[in-house]
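Expect sequence, tokenised fold; for instance:
***
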Amino acid sequence: MGVPDPFLRLWTPHRMAYIAGENKPTSTSSGDDCPFCRIPSLPDADGLIVHRGPAAYAVLNLYPYNPGHLMVVPYRHVADYTDLTPEEVSDVASLTQQAMQAVRIASAAHGFNIGMNQGEIAGAGIAAHLHQHVVPRWGGDTNFMPVVAQTKVLPQLLTDTRALLSKSWPTP
């Protein structure tokens, strides 16, 4: 519609679910409304779980910044890092290390952004259930697409990425 221009379009309609807040919990309580509480009850492939630990699990981000973008999530519905038990802190840290190793094995990541946003004001999409992001980075991965078009190009389906990373997960 409108006057044609010389730009090509890369449509990413799957991102509308994220933009519209689809599947975002409406309450801060645990249970079926919280996707991070619901995911562990699903088979690993359906929930995109890459690995399960004793107190936390590693899951692919449904709306990844880069291919292989994982999150490490405690099973317990807790919002603040200071409220984690020592066992949960240990498992989140251990799974983060293992996630980095798996991504390096699977796709030779050059670096990582690792972190968590604490609270909505800090940018947490689901602030009620703590989750740590593990975002792989490669030299040159910030190209014109995200800068100019605000679009990321992901070369692999999430189910294929989950299978690859699960197979590459190191044994502690």
Strands lie at 49-52, 56-60, 70-74, 111-115, 132-137.
